[in-house]
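Teaching note: in complex prediction, the entire set of molecules is handled at once rather than each chain in isolation. The prompt given to students was simply: 'Predict the structure of this complex.' The entities are:
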Amino acid sequence: MLPVAVDAVGGDKAPGEIVAGARRAVDDLGVPVLLVGPPDRIGDPLGLEVLACTEVIEMHDEPGSSVRRKKDSSLVRAAEAVRDGRASAMVSAGNTGATMASALLRMGRIKGVARPAIAIPIPVPGTTPTILLDAGANAEVQPEWLVQFAQMGATFFTTLYGGDAPRVGLLSIGEEDVKGRAQEKETNALLRDTKNVNFIGNVEGRDLMTPDVDVVVTDGFTGNVVLKTMEGEMRFVQKALIERIPSELFELLWPHLEPLVLELDPETYGGAMLLGVDGVCIISHGSSSARAITNACRVARDMVDGDLVGHLREAVAAS
Amino acid sequence: MLPVAVDAVGGDKAPGEIVAGARRAVDDLGVPVLLVGPPDRIGDPLGLEVLACTEVIEMHDEPGSSVRRKKDSSLVRAAEAVRDGRASAMVSAGNTGATMASALLRMGRIKGVARPAIAIPIPVPGTTPTILLDAGANAEVQPEWLVQFAQMGATFFTTLYGGDAPRVGLLSIGEEDVKGRAQEKETNALLRDTKNVNFIGNVEGRDLMTPDVDVVVTDGFTGNVVLKTMEGEMRFVQKALIERIPSELFELLWPHLEPLVLELDPETYGGAMLLGVDGVCIISHGSSSARAITNACRVARDMVDGDLVGHLREAVAAS
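The expected output is the structure of the full assembly:
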């Protein structure tokens, strides 16, 4: 397969952890990788091929203008590598907004997609994760876009985990069809009439970490707030457990807790997927370590092998 | 003081736990209580005074129409008792929508309040809770309402915990003033100009369980989704710990975990407060046990003693 283009200079732990993770993807998984970035910023590429460029979009740069201005940046070059058939997918832990903008401007949208959305797997130990989308690409949406998010989310779930009719729920504030804002009421009605989505109705925030739903659809504002609320609560719980449990007891406990902590670790899934652009684009968390990057390369490989983009095109065209 | 009117027949555990909790409020806290409900549904009132009525708004009844139709229901009568100076406050674990509607229709709004909002304390062990509002009264809002929610939430915080300038944050998807939907951008600008609110800017979901903010303002859709997400995640974590940790180890652990579990228990705070109606109205969780009802009576007493409604009136009039 064509290599996965990895933005070597994006993320809080770039380039060290990013390059190390990319190297492991090659060594442990056999996924070919192309590092993208200015050679002097990358440092030692650990023997990996480098697509050299001269600029970097920093974490604090304004996404839209920096993508237009920094044409020779790692993000723009990574997206172009996918567009030009030099790479099969791109992975970045850098500036999220600029990653989206680069992918959107350089790869373009899949025909018929109104707006790309960010899909993120929420770990549910013991079963497959719940896919939440939109996790932040579109703060404000229209009901028709949410229907496409449902189609794209279901397609992503199937490409990741198989099965043929993942259960799709609409995030609202009550299970009845009439609950929620005008946005939810209209979307609920549209989804009831959407043939290629197995719509199970409205779901609530408490359903996210249960095995009762596979894909949860909402606008990017609500999705992002939910995601960060969950992150914050999990961080709080972990901190509280460490503070309150005496260390000798904690040592006895750890062998039982460690598998759970690993299953709950978002790094297990490598990051979020930008669905709706004409190529595979993985947006890893800014704090990604080598493990997250290796897993992102694995997911990228699986999405390329599983023809995610082709299936998304069909799903959106079917309605 | 005038008694707290407790809806004896509302909630999953009514009347048993409700009456028991009310009795404890009298015995342990010296808070006078008036039970409201049909005597045959209440059963043994444990020696408490009963305001008898003939109807009950059930959990599944449609809020608006049931309040209009069931004029002799416990919820309507409890709200009238506050309006008519027979009770100082009302507490119900029954139908949330009907509790709001009864309070709104019978007590009326505080002059100048556009819309009442539900404020709920989110436990933050080691410090005061974070007050989140609106937790579900208004799925769709206007920026001006959110400004009033900020004023009311700050007043509620001060009446509960003292201090004079609680830190108020606007829930959004980034800390910068320009982040969020049109709703957040407009509200952010209005709050920057609101003199009686100590506005610290936008906050994110991950700040809710930290000591960094005292009051978090959002619309009732987002607030309700956030609340239920947190509930679901906490339930998930508790279940996972119980399942994964061998019982003999769990017994050693429990003395260290129990104080944390109690601090995190929403029953510690007795329920949510409906802010903006002309009286004290506490909406307890449908699953409330006696402990929650006792605590709700305590909070009701504190809010009456602290003249919450008078302070809310001043806060809203000041702008």
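Point out the following to students. The two ends of chain A are 32 Å apart (CA to CA). Chain A is about 45% helix and 15% strand.
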